[in-house]
Amino acid sequence: MAGSESYPDDLRYHPEHDWARVDGDEAVMGITWYAQDSLGELVLFDGPEVGATLTKDEAYAEVESVKAVSDVIAPLSGEVLEVNQKAVDEPETVNEDPYGEGWLVRIRISAPGEVEALLDAGAYRAHIAEL
């Protein structure tokens, strides 16, 4: 099951519990430890198609757990370059390693200025402490 609660300092966070690891003009994205813990064991990840355009703050995929179905919100806008097939085939990977093997999509960022609007790890921790 899930590892211990963590929010890596090298990531940027969306208030809807999604993260982005930015590398140049690309970003790998997924859901946070808080999101996967709240959902419980994931049983389905229904991701976007490669080539799809994501828009910041809008749903781009769904995750389903034993508890609920939840939209995955895009922390950044861009074109989908890759969908993590392991997360599709073995959605529990997201629970086990949400920032590593449990990433969801890799995109080419279309609006680099959006990165600065995301929360750093400290601000995200403060955000979830208020929930």
Structure explained in plain terms:
The chain is an alpha+beta fold and 131 residues long. The strands form two sheets. Strands 1-2-3-9-8-5 form a six-stranded antiparallel sheet. The chain has a three-stranded antiparallel sheet with strand order 4-6-7. It has one domain (12-129): OB fold (Dihydrolipoamide Acetyltransferase, E2P), CATH 2.40.50. It has four helices and nine strands. The mean pLDDT is 96.
The oligomerization state is single chain
SSE order, as H and E?
EEEHEEEEEHHEH
Helix content: 10-25%
Average pLDDT over all residues: 96
Number of strands: 9
What profile does the largest beta sheet have? 6 strands, antiparallel
Count of the domains: 1
Q: What is the fourth-level CATH superfamily? A: RNA polymerase II/Efflux pump adaptor protein, barrel-sandwich hybrid domain
CATH architecture classification name: Beta Barrel
- The CATH topology corresponds to OB fold (Dihydrolipoamide Acetyltransferase, E2P)
Strand order of the largest sheet: 1-2-3-9-8-5
Morphology call: globular
